[in-house]
Structures are given as C-alpha cells and as structure tokens.
Amino acid sequence: MVLLEATDVVAGYGQTEILHGVSIFVDQGEVVTIIGPNGCGKSTLMKAIVGMVRVRTGSVSFQGTDISGYPPERIVRTGLCYVPQTSNVFPSLTIRENLEMGAFLRKDDYRGRIGQMFDLFPDLAAHPGRKAGSLSGGQRQMLAIARALMLDPVMLLLDEPSAGLSPAMMQTVFDRIREINESGVALLLVEQNARDALGMSDRGYILVAGEKRLEDTGKDLLNNPEVASLYLGG
Ligand SMILES: Nc1ncnc2c1ncn2[C@@H]1O[C@H](COP(=O)(O)OP(=O)(O)O)[C@@H](O)[C@H]1O
Ligand SMILES: [Mg+2]
C-alpha cells in the first residue's frame, strides 16, 4: 500500500486557485523531494496534505485512509507531522519546553523520547534550558524537526529545512534528515537546495505554476539536462 497519496489536488486561497490538480505519492520509508520555482505552490501542497489549506477537489490518503477534510490536529494523530518553513518553534520557550510541547498529544511518558532527541541532536542537548529564540538558524531548524519527532511520526513533511543556513550547517541538517529516514520515517521534503536534496531522495517531483511538470528518481532528475539548467544552477 502507498503510504501517502495525493490525487488531483486542487487548492488555493480565496478566489485564487494555486494547485490545479496535483498528484504525488510517497511509499513507506521513502525520501521524496519537491522542487520548483518560488511561488509555484510547494508549501501550499504541503499545507493541503496536512489539512491547513482546504482540498477543494481531489483527495489525500494516508495509510489507506482518506484524510482530506480532517482538521490538522486529527491528521497529526494519524502519524503525519509537518514542519513549516518559518515560525516552527516557540521562541520564548526553552529547548526542553519546545520538545514537551511537541509531545502534547502523547498520553504516555515521553521523557525517554526527549532523551532520544538529545542523542540525535547533540547541539540541543548541550543547553536544554536555552530559549529557542536565542538559537542559531540551524539549531532552530533542528529543534523544529525534533519537536515534530516527539510524536514518533510515520512520516514527516519538511518545508525547506535548509533555507538560510550556512553550507556547513546545511550539511549537518541533511545528515540528520538522512538518519531520521534510516530510522524508518518516510520524508517529503520541499527544498531550494535541489542538488543536495535530490541526491538523497528516492524520487522527486518538479512543480511549476501549480502543476506537476516532471517526476522521476532523484538520480534521474539530477541527470536531466532540463532540470539541471533550470533548478540546479546549470
Ligand atoms: N495565505 C495565503 N493567502 C493568499 N495567497 C497565498 C497565501 N500563501 C501563499 N499564497 C500564494 O500562493 C502561491 C503559492 O505559494 P506557496 O505555496 O507558498 O509557493 P512555494 O512554497 O512554492 O514558494 C504564491 O503566489 C503565494 O503568493
Ligand atoms: Mg514555500
């Protein structure tokens, strides 16, 4: 069974239709990346999948259940967690408090999970009492990912996790993302750093003006001359 399947999704804001019938899927354990120009609807597609933007027509199914129309908090409970590009941590709360907030839906003892997050992100473990607002961009991004992982999701959606980071920090974030995937979590990424993202992706999609332009393996997209000239800096 396909893990996540979006079929002919139409969505937008007010009178404006942004996604004109987009279909994508993610299999169990896969890393799948969506790339495309600014404003083409990548974030809108993620928001439609997690219930933050209404799916006007078409459908989204997760683990065989049609989740289109579910409110976001119900979708989270199915094991599908979303890390938005910005405003993804509580700046006035500490690292530890952010992780505790991430566990808000858990009924069990989540302290062990916080320990696992500190193992995965040693940078966060060093200063658990630091306010999230005082962290560097990279640390903040890792905290946002760790917060989403507190719920032990089946699948994570990450919207531009490496945006605005130094090359070294970007590499660290990608390394962590790969480890998370190796632990069994399926990933759907939106990335501007297309070369790095496609390099670690099983498959990818090119979205242009609210429509799917291309889909292929990460490797073949990297080797596609059209993709290279338009999205990989030649
Ligand atoms: N909350 C919103 N209200 C109205 N228009 C929006 C909103 N969010 C995004 N848009 C518009 O939708 C289009 C797609 O945006 P987005 O999905 O964020 O693109 P991408 O993530 O690919 O850069 C853009 O034209 C953007 O201006
Ligand atoms: Mg975006």
How is the biggest beta sheet arranged? 6 strands, mixed
Supply Rg: 17 Å
Number of strands: 10
The helical percent reads: 25-40%
* Structural class determined from secondary elements: alpha/beta
Provide a compact summary of the structure.
This protein is α/β, with parallel strands linked by helices and 234 residues long.
Description:
- The protein is an alpha/beta fold and 234 residues long.
- It has a single domain, classed as Rossmann fold (3-Layer(aba) Sandwich).
- It is 36% helix and 26% strand.
- The protein is built from 10 helices and 10 strands.
- It has a 6-stranded mixed beta sheet, sandwiched between helices. A 4-stranded antiparallel beta sheet has the order 2-1-4-5, covered by helices on one side.
- Strand 4 and strand 5 (65-66) form a beta hairpin.
- It is globular, with a radius of gyration of 17 Å.
- The protein binds adenosine-5'-diphosphate (ADP) and magnesium ion.
Feature tags:
26% strand; six-stranded mixed beta sheet; Rossmann fold; 234 residues; four-stranded antiparallel beta sheet; binds adenosine-5'-diphosphate; 36% helix; binds magnesium ion; alpha/beta; globular
Compile the SSE list and pairings:
Blueprint: E1 4-13, E2 16-26, E3 31-35, H1 42-49, E4 57-62, E5 65-66, H2 72-77, E6 80-83, H3 95-102, H4 111-120, H5 122-126, H6 137-149, E7 155-159, H7 167-182, E8 186-190, H8 194-199, E9 203-208, E10 211-217, H9 218-222, H10 225-231
Helix pairs in contact: 3-6
